[in-house]
Design brief:
The protein is α+β, with helices and mostly antiparallel strands. It has one domain: Nucleoside Triphosphate Pyrophosphohydrolase (Alpha-Beta Complex), CATH 3.90.79.10. Helix content is 28%, strand content 25%. The chain has 8 helices and 13 strands. Strands 2, 3, 4, 5, 8, 9, 10 and 11 form an 8-stranded mixed β-sheet that branches. Strands 1-13-12 form a 3-stranded antiparallel β-sheet. A two-stranded antiparallel ribbon has the order 6-7.
Length: 272
């Protein structure tokens, strides 16, 4: 059994949940995008969440966030997403739109173009639109329509599906996607939720996590571990994925709180 020790503050939460004194928070759908590029080897874009964040403070993560109600306003013609993501059609399309929106909001990378086979090469003049998305004064659909752009959902590849443990105070039902960096664009340090960004090789990031130099949550470690098997962006995007739902559990073992991995995900966690 693979397990990770939790701070003692989780002990009371686990006891309350097991005794039925409290109920787990409602799940929110969310999307995460692993941006990839080729630089003498495969690299991934990561952000460090600011210490004041309620969820995973100080953790190195990939761009992403919860689905916004208005993500459903964009008329995305992609019926196949439902089966791939294991969700009803409406939810699947919201997840895809959220993936594109969050990537633009947190990294200034826009997976959209003037047509279905082109991409925006420079997002510099789109900063007012990004800020409008952030403060929710503009929806993704409104932004794309105003700029005459088409969402390039075909550039996203589903990668994994993780559900936050019930012991957390905030919980997300998250689909992970991978995407190559659009040519001509740059991933920027623009997120108000992050205080540092970096391009790292997956093995390098894992080594830093092993040393304790970079704090990462289990889904991030799992994703990086998977990516060490690939040498280029093209290889990652061409990979066939059997997407299973991963939901770690929280248990009390010998009087101490632990995060316990499901058997089918145990191999994802080095050093645990």
């Amino acid at each position: 059994m693979n397990r990770m020790k939790l701070p003692m503050e989780f002990l009371a939460r686990i006891q309350d949940l097991e005794a039925g004194r409290t109920q787990p928070p409602v799940l929110r759908h969310a999307s995460t995008v692993v941006l990839l590029r080729d630089r003498d080897g495969l690299e991934v874009f990561m952000l460090r969440r600011v210490s004041s964040m309620a969820f995973a403070p100080g953790a190195y993560v990939f761009p992403g966030g919860a689905v916004d109600a208005r993500d459903a306003e964009y008329d995305l013609d992609a019926p196949d997403w439902s089966g791939v993501l294991g969700a009803d059609r409406a939810t699947a399309l919201e997840l895809v739109c959220a993936a594109a929106r969050e990537t633009f909001e947190e990294a200034h990378v826009l997976l959209a173009g003037p047509s279905e086979d082109t991409l925006v090469e420079d997002t510099t003049d789109l900063e007012p639109d990004r800020l409008a998305l952030l403060d929710r004064s503009q929806s993704l659909a409104g932004f794309l329509k105003a700029r005459g752009l088409v969402l390039r959902a075909d550039l996203l590849r589903p990668w994994a599906h993780w559900i936050t443990p019930v012991v957390e105070t905030k919980r997300y039902d998250t689909r992970f996607f991978v995407a190559g960096m659009p040519e001509g664009q740059r991933a920027l340090d623009v997120s108000t939720e992050a205080d540092r960004v970096a391009w790292l090789r997956p093995a390098e990031a894992l080594a830093q996590a092993e040393k304790g130099a970079m704090f990462m949550m289990p889904p991030t470690l799992a994703t990086l571990t998977d990516l060490t098997a690939f040498g280029t962006v093209a290889e990652v995007l061409a990979a066939e994925r059997d997407i299973m739902v991963h939901q770690p559990d929280a248990k009390i073992i010998d009087g101490e709180p632990y995060l316990v991995l499901p058997d089918h995900a145990a191999h994802h966690y080095p050093g645990m």
